[in-house]
Design a protein that fits this description.
The protein is mainly alpha-helical. The longest helix is centred in the middle third of the chain and has 37 residues. The N and C termini lie far apart (about 50 Å). InterPro entries: Hr_FBXL5. This is Hemerythrin-like domain-containing protein.
Length: about 240
């Protein structure tokens, strides 16, 4: 594995084009944030503090659950759309999805092993899991880049934005509420302000008011006060610190 200077040069020199419907952009921001935060948390964990230890192990498991669900959503909706109009176009990444499933299972086994360790064995087991998770995160970052470039080229060649929005809406509709709240917690805070406004304005227009309120309550603790104020104003909602109406 090495840095591809040519690929970096292409990205650096890329000219702006009219934006297309990008199903990967927001969810991949969420996954990158969740992965990075979890890896850092595992690395700094105090194995002597039982509550911190339990919470950090649970955080790793939450990440693995979301990664597994994400693979299934992409296989069922995005890959199916690609194969429908360009057979074989998703095979390479689909193969990596199989490898990721195996890696997720191995990581979950590592967490269970760590949680069963006696305290003196925790430092070594934690370091082993940290390195295992670091490799998983590194591979996923490259994997997501491939999807955002090669897969999007196929999708944009084969579908209109309206058709892609339909695929995306069907995918989102299939996500259970508890998973959607986890996604919102990691997606909204790491979006740009314009992306936050676009996503939550659509939710304000189409989702029941209690759903929007629940999402806002979920993400508010993870936004700075200026970010929160800007978001509320962009949604036409009152800026009341600590209160979502």
């Amino acid at each position: 594995m090495k840095i591809d200077a040519r690929e970096i040069a292409v990205l650096t020199q890329a000219q702006p084009t009219a934006p297309r419907m990008d199903m990967y952009a927001s969810i991949h921001k969420a996954l990158r944030a969740f992965m990075a935060d979890t890896l850092l948390g595992l690395g700094r964990m105090d194995v002597e503090e039982d509550l911190e230890f339990a919470q950090t192990c649970d955080r790793v498991m939450q990440l693995l659950d979301l990664c597994r669900a994400h693979l299934h959503h992409e296989n069922q909706f995005v890959h199916a759309a690609m194969e429908a109009r360009q057979p074989g176009s998703s095979q390479s990444i689909a193969g990596e999805h199989v490898e990721h499933e195996q890696a997720i299972t191995a990581l979950a086994d590592g967490v269970n092993h760590l949680m069963a360790c006696a305290k003196p064995a925790r430092p070594a087991a934690t370091l082993a899991l940290y390195r295992q998770l670091a490799l998983f995160v590194a591979h996923n970052f490259e994997h997501m880049h491939e999807e955002e470039t090669a897969h999007n080229r196929v999708l944009w060649q084969c579908y209109t934005d309206a058709e892609l929005a339909g695929v995306h809406d069907a995918l989102v509709a299939s996500i259970p509420p508890h998973e959607m709240m986890v996604v919102a917690r990691w997606m909204v805070p790491y979006m740009s302000p314009a992306e936050r406004t676009a996503m939550l304005s659509d939710m304000k227009q189409h989702a029941p008011a209690p759903v929007l309120a629940a999402v806002l309550a979920q993400v508010q603790p993870h936004l700075t006060q200026p970010e929160w104020t800007k978001l509320m104003r962009s949604l036409g909602l009152p800026v009341v610190p600590g209160l979502v109406q």
